[in-house]
Amino acid sequence: MKLPESLILGKSIGRILYAAGLASSASDGHRLAVQQGAYVGAAPGQKAGTNKGMLFGQLQFTPVKAWFPQETRNFLIDGKLLILRKGKHNVRVIEMVSDEEYARLGLTYPGQPYTGKVRKLNQKLKDLKAGRVQPDEVDLGESEAALDDEHEPQYDQTHLVFPEPKGRQQEALEKKIKKHL
To answer: Which residues lie within the region annotated Disordered (predicted)?
Structure first.
């Protein structure tokens, strides 16, 4: 998985765990770090500020502790790979890429600023009210497809796919947008 440099080197380990899919929220990621429920690929027994890395050819894990965001650099392998683990088998190998490359690839991660569903719906509603967008140009994307059969399972070739439940705020915004259409 790829994550941007600004996240890896500038945010807390709790946010990184959330973005990597090892925590259900940033606060859950922070709790994992404080309770040492997550692990980072590093030489065991070394503090975040003085970690020298692992021996070549050996992968060892040490419990994640709450450290300063700039100390994450000490756990990078070859200056670009970060290995995180939660539990026994839930492992993520994260490649750090530049912010420009991440944006060029069109990738997003959980908790990424300015990419939430509610924020996007609010912006569409503002554009509609201001007249910057015509009603026929508005695309609700996933939300529009899920309006008809909100809780009906959709069939894939291999398994059932259930749509994600919507929050009250998202439903209210969709209704407002529908009124303007």
So the answer is: 143-181
Specify the pLDDT at position 46.
59
Q: Containing domain of residue 92, as a range? A: 2-105
Least reliable range by pLDDT among 33-37, 41-45, 134-138, 147-151: 147-151
Q: Which residues contact 118 (CB under 8 A, 6 or more apart)?
A: 167, 169, 170, 173
Q: Which of 30, 173, 13, 5 is nearest to 101 (CA)?
A: 5
Please report how many Cα atoms fall inside a 13 Å half-sphere around the Cα of residue 168, on the Cβ side: 0
117, with CB counted inside 10 A (0-12, 13-18, 19+), is middle
Question: Which residues, in sequence order, are bridge partners of residue 97?
Answer: 4
pTM of the model: 0.66
